[in-house]
């Protein structure tokens, strides 16, 4: 669960992170593939797909780490010709996914990703605590009538 | 676990199509991608081998406005059915909200179906979940094949729990029963958010089964056992 204040706070951190490391786009994705906060621009990329693939890729890497006796590979880097992706593990089953191009380099992005990780973890912890303390979402209305939910 | 974003008024729900190899999980998503017109749909992504067998997962995202004041984003995944990809299936089940268990109606596939259903339950346990917590529907697919197992046998084998699941007959390749299955799964998930869930459309009562449910009958032709026990 993410409130408007949580999202604003996370997005401010991401925006600040992007301006420092000069990356193009950054997002928080959970390990189930849900995107819940982002900053920057990816053009016409389908962000649902991007998140699902990033979560899948990181999950596979995590499993590889386990097989090698590592508790986790904390970061995963994919290098392309012009665009690259860095994925860093956060707490609460979340990932920081960053896309960057030729304006910056992996060292800088990784450095600032490490810097932004503790405050993001704190914000996630706060959101998790709020969720645990709040009542579950219950909506009024006959939305479960005989109409198809999806058509 | 469902992700609720109060800022963008969005609820994200993950539905996983599970089942034995070649039972029609990917075909379900391909057909849905063709059939669905009103919901805002994303691209269908398949991480498959050269032989078109699912290697990691297939993925399709659908946005609907079913819930008042919220956009509901259904994220549909399939798992690879082949036995060697069990670790991958466990990964795809992370954060699952609902399951469609796809059963191949072919007699010769019964043992595979039963094994896959048992494997689903094992992999849910690996993710600290169970079929008691996670809403699921059953889909008896390939009903058009000449030697399809009778529905009463499939019901006995896969739907013989105290709380019976909604079950649907389908022919995923033609689209028959595909959207009905997904809608049933979607309603089961959405019922959680309703102050006044209507039992007739949420599957909480038995008479809503879409297939005839006869008394449990044991069929001696197949020795696959009772997967739902």
Describe the fold and architecture.
The complex is a heterodimer of chains A (151) and B (229). Chain A has 151 residues and is of the alpha+beta class. Helices cover 44% and strands 20% of the residues of chain A. In chain A, a hairpin with a 4-residue loop joins β1 and β2. The radius of gyration of chain A is 17 Å and the shape is globular. Chain B is an alpha/beta fold. Chain B has a single domain, classed as Rossmann fold (3-Layer(aba) Sandwich). In chain B, 26% of the residues lie in helices and 24% in strands. In chain B, a hairpin with a 6-residue loop joins β5 and β6. The longest helix of chain B has 17 residues. Classes of the chains: A alpha+beta (151), B alpha/beta (229). Chains A and B meet through α1 and α2 of A and β1, β2, β5, β6 and α2 of B.
Structure classification of chain A? alpha+beta
- How much helical structure, as a percent, in the residues of chain B? 25-40%
% residues in beta strands of chain B: 15-25%
Q: Provide the residue-averaged pLDDT of chain A.
A: 90
- Give me the side-by-side strand order of the main sheet of chain A: 2-1-5-4-3
Low-pLDDT regions of chain B: 204-209, 211-225
Number of strands of chain B: 9
- By secondary-structure content and strand pairing, the structural class of chain B works out as alpha/beta
Oligomer: heterodimer
Strand content of chain A: 15-25%
Number of domains of chain B: 1
N-to-C CA distance of chain B: 26 Å
Helix content of chain A: 40-55%
Q: State the CATH superfamily name of chain B.
A: P-loop containing nucleotide triphosphate hydrolases
CATH topology of chain A: Beta-Lactamase
Count the helices of chain B. How many?
6
Tell me the CATH architecture of chain B.
3-Layer(aba) Sandwich
Spatial separation of the terminal alpha carbons of chain A: 27 Å
């Amino acid at each position: 669960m993410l409130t408007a204040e949580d999202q604003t706070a996370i997005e401010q951190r991401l925006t600040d992170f992007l301006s420092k490391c000069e990356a193009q786009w950054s997002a928080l994705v959970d390990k189930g593939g849900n995107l819940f906060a982002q900053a920057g621009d990816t053009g016409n990329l389908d962000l649902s797909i991007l998140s699902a693939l990033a979560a899948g890729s990181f999950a596979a890497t995590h499993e590889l780490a386990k097989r090698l006796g590592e508790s986790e590979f904390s970061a995963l880097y994919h290098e392309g010709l012009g665009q690259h992706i860095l994925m860093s593990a956060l707490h609460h089953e979340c990932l920081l996914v960053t896309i960057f191009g030729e304006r910056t380099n992996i060292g800088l992005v990784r450095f600032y990703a490490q810097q932004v990780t503790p405050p993001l973890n704190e914000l996630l912890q706060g959101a998790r605590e709020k969720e645990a303390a709040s009542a579950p979402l219950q909506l009024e209305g006959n939305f479960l009538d005989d109409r198809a939910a999806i058509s | 676990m469902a992700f609720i974003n109060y800022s963008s008024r969005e609820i994200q729900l993950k539905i996983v199509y599970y089942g034995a190899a070649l039972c029609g999980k990917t075909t379900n998503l391909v057909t849905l991608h063709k059939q669905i017109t009103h919901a805002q749909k994303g691209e269908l992504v398949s991480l498959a081998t050269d032989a078109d067998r699912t290697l990691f997962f297939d993925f399709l995202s659908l946005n609907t406005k079913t819930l008042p004041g919220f956009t509901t984003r259904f994220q549909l995944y399939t798992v690879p059915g082949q036995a060697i990809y069990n670790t991958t299936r466990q990964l795809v089940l992370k954060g699952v909200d609902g399951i469609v268990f796809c059963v191949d109606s072919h007699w010769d596939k019964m043992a595979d179906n039963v094994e896959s259903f048992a494997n689903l339950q094992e992999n849910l346990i690996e993710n600290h979940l169970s079929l008691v917590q996670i809403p699921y529907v059953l889909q008896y697919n390939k009903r058009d094949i000449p030697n399809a197992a009778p529905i009463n046998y499939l019901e006995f084998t896969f739907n013989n729990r105290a709380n019976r699941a909604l079950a649907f007959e389908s022919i995923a390749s033609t689209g028959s029963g595909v959207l009905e299955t997904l809608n049933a799964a979607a309603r089961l998930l959405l019922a959680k958010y309703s102050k006044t869930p209507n039992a007739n459309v949420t599957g909480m009562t038995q008479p809503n089964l879409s297939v005839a449910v006869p008394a449990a009958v044991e069929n001696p032709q197949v020795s696959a056992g009772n997967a739902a026990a």
